Amino acid sequence: DQQVKQNSPSLSVQEGRISILNCDYTNSMFDYFLWYKKYPAEGPTFLISISSIKDKNEDGRFTVFLNKSAKHLSLHIVPSQPGDSAVYFCAASGDGSSNTGKLIFGQGTTLQVKP
Amino acid sequence: EAGVTQSPTHLIKTRGQQATLRCSPISGHTSVYWYQQALGLGLQFLLWYDEGEERNRGNFPPRFSGRQFPNYSSELNVNALELEDSALYLCASSPGQGWTDTQYFGPGTRLTVL
């Protein structure tokens, strides 16, 4: 039972254009969502997060949108740069009443930004 | 500021042996988390320690255990190693137990079981 899904294994965009990475979840009790970037042979690097009481959070070139009714979140990267090429993971946490400490990750989307 | 550090980088063991992996959190962080990323699978939550206590455990057998020391560093022990334990083991730390506390990851330990 995969509670967090990233249905697109890969995405290729041109440098300077927008990258949109998508993530769906099934558990309506999740209350905190994060995006991480991972390069080969390195640990995940935190990018941006959003709590369930918000629908948008922005940090520089990165914006995360949350649609609770659709149980969907997306990460927008504008403009995309070749250095953004990596695997992107979305993660969710919470059970509605307490902090479980547990992040549930999607399978990841490999982003390739072409010069 | 130093990030999360893990040792060793690589570890090779044979089936049935025990493996010990170590993690030092970011200075000032009290919570440590362990995750497993096996080939072809996503990151799976293993354990959460805070202030020396185990706070939560993922769906792994008891031969996966760990502890957190008074200086907040942690070790993960895997007993009776099986071939399917071969994976990248990631440690993360966060400032505390807050539900919005971001987890920051280390580079991982690659465990290979032969």
Give a verbal description of the structure.
The complex is a heterodimer of chains A (115) and B (114). With 115 residues, chain A is mainly β. Chain A has strands at residues 4-5, 10-14, 19-25, 32-38, 45-51, 56-59, 62-67, 72-77, 86-93, 104-105, 109-114. In chain A, β6 (56-59) and β7 form a beta hairpin. In chain B, the strands form two sheets. In chain B, strands 2, 4, 5, 6, 9, 10 and 11 form a seven-stranded mixed beta sheet that branches. Classes of the chains: A mainly beta (115), B mainly beta (114). The interface between A and B is medium-sized, with 27 and 26 residues.
Characteristic key phrases:
heterodimer, A: 115 residues, mainly beta, 6-stranded mixed sheet, 5-stranded antiparallel sheet, 11 strands, 52% strand, globular, B: 114 residues, 7-stranded mixed sheet, 4-stranded antiparallel sheet
Short description:
The complex is a heterodimer of chains A (115) and B (114). Chain A is an all-beta fold and 115 residues long.
How does the major sheet of chain B shape up?
7 strands, mixed
Q: Mean of residue pLDDT of chain A? A: 93
Q: What is the count of DSSP helices of chain B, taking H or I runs of 4+ residues?
A: 0
> What is the radius of gyration of chain B?
13 Å
Largest interface: A-B, 27 and 26 residues
Radius of gyration of chain A: 14 Å
Quaternary class: heterodimer
List the helices and strands and how they pair.
The complex is a heterodimer of chains A (115) and B (114).
Chain A: E1 4-5, E2 10-14, E3 19-25, E4 32-38, E5 45-51, E6 56-59, E7 62-67, E8 72-77, E9 86-93, E10 104-105, E11 109-114
Parallel strand pairs in A: 2-11
Antiparallel strand pairs in A: 1-3, 3-8, 4-5, 4-9, 6-7, 7-8, 9-10, 9-11
Chain B: E1 5-7, E2 10-13, E3 19-24, E4 31-37, E5 43-50, E6 53-57, E7 64-68, E8 74-78, E9 87-94, E10 104-105, E11 109-113
Parallel strand pairs in B: 2-11
Antiparallel strand pairs in B: 1-3, 3-8, 4-5, 4-9, 5-6, 7-8, 9-10, 9-11
